[in-house]
Specification:
- The protein is α/β, with parallel strands linked by helices.
- It is 38% helix and 14% strand.
- The protein is built from 14 helices and 15 strands.
- The chain has helices spanning 3-8, 23-32, 44-51, 62-70, 106-116, 135-145, 185-196, 208-238, 243-250, 275-283, 290-316, 344-354, 386-390, 406-411, and strands at 13-17, 36-40, 74-77, 88-91, 123-127, 155-159, 178-182, 202-205, 325-329, 358-362, 368-369, 379-380, 394-397, 416-418, 430-432.
- The chain has an eight-stranded mixed sheet, sandwiched between helices. A five-stranded parallel sheet has the order 10-9-13-14-15, with helices on one face. The chain has a two-stranded antiparallel ribbon with strand order 11-12.
Amino acid sequence: MELLEKIRNKEARIGVIGLGYVGLPLVIRFCEVGYRVIGFDIDPAKVTRLNKGESYIKHIRAEQIQSLLARGAFSATSDMQRLKEADAVIICVPTPLTDNREPDMQYVQETAEQIVASLRPGQIISLESTTYPGTTEELLLPLFAKTGLHVGKDFFLVFSPEREDPGRVDFTTKSTPKIVGGATPRCLEIGQALYSNIVDRVVAVSSTKTAEMVKLLENIYRSVNISLVNELKIVCDRMNINIWEVIEAAKTKPFGFQAFYPGPGLGGHCIPIDPFYLTWKAREYDLSTRFIELAGEIGAQMPYYVVQKIMDALNDRGKSMKGSKILVLGIAYKKDVDDMRESPALKIIELLLEKGSLTDYHDPFIPEMPRTRHYAFAMKSAPLTEKTLKSYDCILIATDHSSLQYDWVVQNSSLVVDTRNAVKTPSDKVVKA
């Protein structure tokens, strides 16, 4: 049976590589509409938990996984040899940066090599991981072509960038339009057919490069504007102007303005990272993306600004940073999620520890903070009680989770440094940062 017909009849087997914040929602959506899905992940702990019907992502309920397992729609595995069973292979692996802020393509490279080992006629490969323009054609296609199979005839290749936003409830995988670019017109046709079954709208673009650039534009737009408002926050602080009042007033303009809000820095799996993929690629064309790099620099400096505000606030109260007890409220990169990828709170904690403070954290969504490849410390969420609050010299609000009662925090604390405007009631205990 031809691949296009199998996709339309929902007889195609779907394989999703990478079962994180992007891949797992995709698995669920394909299963919801009637496909059978194999989930692939190199982390055996994730595979085991999923096959037991457990979820490790807050906004995905265990009952959803259990339902898929019960009706035989889904199974998880670390056995990459099973990729040959899939008619559609969707790549959702990380694309981080190296320490030199250059693309770290090891996960995409390794995944592509595993696909090559089992690539067969009648398969479509879709890359969803955010990357630099040219990755699909320059990295994946040459590898796949070594098999002797012809793109657009024997196998099909597309790029369709993920648009997941953990914790968002007004848009879902289904209702978020899907960008698709194909290596050939036939690839695009089959890619459109695949995704049109799970989303309300598929937006076709002329090439995989265009689709790759679309994703970068979306994230660069946010990076630049968040960095801009963070820089304005510093200016307003020096001028004794409330930046949040300025933003709320500016929002009343019904055209030509969109509100962005300051915070402790850039966080999340996309915004602090993806712009540098374009910066790196632009050098190949003798171009310098100064605007993008400046935004990244401002974002990277915000944790240092926050730590300086803490030092100043403690100093005003006759206390040294060294030896002071500090509690960081919220280490997720945004409110009401259990996602701490690239969270500026982690950098802030590292800086506080380096300066000799005794730092803990509390986050109702992240009971344990494991060591990461960037941060060597590991912690457990400290209890948040009247007694514990009073034991700290400073409380830093890094993430404004809606479940936390900030007026109560202020009432039971001697000093609160607020990076998110979570405390609305004026108090001489509160320092805005």
